[in-house]
Amino acid sequence: MRVLVTGGAGFIGSHVAERLAEEGHEVVVYDNFSTGSMENIRHLLSMSNVKVVKGDVLDLDALMRAVDGCDAISHHAAQLEIGSAIRDPAADARVNIEGTINVLEAAVRRGVGKVVYASSAGVYGEALRLPQDEEHPKRPSWPYGVSKYAGELYCLQYSQFYGVKTCALRYGIVYGEREWFGRVLTMFIKRAVLENKPPVIFGDGRQTRDFIYVKDAVELHNLLLEGDHDGFEAYNAGSGVATTIRDLADLVIELSGNDLEPVYEDPPEGGCSLITGRWRIPKELRNLQLDITKAVKKTGWKPETSLREGVRREIEWIRNNRERWNVRERV
Ligand SMILES: NC(=O)c1ccc[n+]([C@@H]2O[C@H](COP(=O)([O-])OP(=O)(O)OC[C@H]3O[C@@H](n4cnc5c(N)ncnc54)[C@H](O)[C@@H]3O)[C@@H](O)[C@H]2O)c1
Predict the structure, then answer these.
(1) Residues 191 and 51 in one domain
(2) CATH number of the domain within which 202 lies
(3) Does 144 participate in catalysis according to the annotation?
(4) Closest Cα to atom 10 of ligand 1
(5) In a domain, 107, yes or no
(6) Measured between alpha carbons, how far is 262 from 256 in angstroms, rounded to an integer?
(7) What sign for the dihedral angle of Cα 295, 247, 131, 211?
């Protein structure tokens, strides 16, 4: 296949591009490099089946040129900063909704039969039941979840009207090599591993998250991209395991080899930590645990990497790539 990967210079997109290229597919990385970086894909540049195009998903003409001759699109380009989305929902909507419409439009106009869309567990909002299956009500807590869900609905529209096969992957908390700074795990790693300082937990630490190692998520992504289905389908892409933030902090401390105890802070939602200067996201979710039965039944996939092993690999990567780890906080 020839696959256009939008956001292919980003964290998840670069792993998607890498894996597809290793499998022998032709890959066109399409990215405006706003948060992604050439460093994420430098190791792919010598491969004859990888091409990089600098372009914006808001530029339909450029997108259509780049997608010419492709069989599928993996759409990972997005605005992910929850704080930015709250401050400027229209800008968030432009990239995440209009950008997704452009991707679908380019697919229709250039005869691309399949689009895999990187959605988010953020479409569900606060869990009304656990684990959350794909039928869980969609009541996003932030404009980011609204725009990601709108992208899904456009995927549905384009499959109904134009017959493009579309599929949404609702990622949980994806982590691993090349993860960007400003998220709970990367904050913990920076403090405990690089600075020998205790991780700072917001609240009581009993809130839960569903962490999925990036290569496991990409494995599911590729099975869905390469497999067949009709119309539009949405799949949860998580581990199915709920991990408390306290347990995550303890794991990072243990793997750091440093003698530390986490500290607790309780800034109001939207308030700032006195210790790290980190902003607390308003309407922080209490629980996130995805039911992954649908993806497992459809593809035979299951996540292979334990949280311990995945975090160990991420720490090793950060230790070896300290200079190029982008430590600009994104919230
Ligand atoms: N990381 C996660 O845990 C997570 C969870 C849920 C959903 N997602 C989704 O997965 C996708 C990838 O996320 P990520 O963590 O790799 O983020 P990332 O910021 O590393 O990657 C996004 C990429 O898109 C590019 N981009 C942004 N705006 C663009 C535009 N207008 N035109 C072209 N390129 C543009 C960026 O330069 C970057 O390379 C996103 O769609 C995101 O919503 C990620």
Answers:
(1) no
(2) 3.90.25.10
(3) yes
(4) 118
(5) yes
(6) 13
(7) negative
Do 191 and 318 fall into the same domain? yes
> Do 225 and 87 belong to one domain?
yes
- Which tokens in the block code for residue 104? 């679908």
Q: What values do phi and psi take at 54, rounded to 5?
A: -85, 120
Choosing from 18, 64, 76, 329 the residue with most ligand 1 atoms within 8 A of its CB, the one to mutate for a pocket test is: 76
How many angstroms separate the alpha carbon of residue 32 from the centre of ligand 1? 11
The binding-site residues of ligand 1, defined as CB within 6 angstroms of any ligand atom, are: 6-7, 9-13, 31-36, 56-58, 76-80, 95, 99, 118, 120, 148, 171, 173-174, 180
Quick one: which of 252, 262, 258 has its CA closest to 313? Answer: 252
| CATH number for the domain harbouring residue 56 | 3.40.50.720
Distance from Cα 169 to the centre of ligand 1, integer Å = 13
Q: Which long-range contacts (CB under 8 A, 24 or more apart) does 138-143 make?
A: 141/283, 141/285, 142/82, 142/85, 142/86, 142/281, 142/282, 142/283, 143/85, 143/86, 143/89, 143/92, 143/93
Domain region containing 169: 2-174+212-237
Confidence (pTM): 0.98
Q: Is residue 297 part of a domain?
A: no
Residue 122 has what DSSP assignment?
G
| Residue 7 within any structural domain of the chain | yes
Q: How remote is the CA of residue 230 from the centroid of ligand 1, in Å? A: 26
Going residue by residue through the chain (331 aa), what tens digit of pLDDT does each one get?
999 999 999 999 999 999 999 999 999 999 999 999 999 999 999 999 999 999 999 999 999 999 999 999 999 999 999 999 999 999 999 999 999 999 999 999 999 999 999 999 999 999 999 999 999 999 999 999 999 999 999 999 999 999 999 999 999 999 999 999 889 999 999 999 999 999 999 999 999 999 999 999 999 999 999 998 889 999 999 999 999 999 999 999 999 999 999 999 999 998 999 999 888 999 999 999 999 999 999 999 999 999 999 999 999 999 999 887 766 666 5
In a domain, 299, yes or no: no
- Which of 41, 44, 171, 285 has the most ligand 1 atoms within 8 A of CB, as the residue to mutate? 171
Active-site hit among 30, 124, 144, 175: 144
The answer to whether residues 233 and 245 belong to one domain is no
Does residue 142 sit in the same domain as residue 261?
A: no
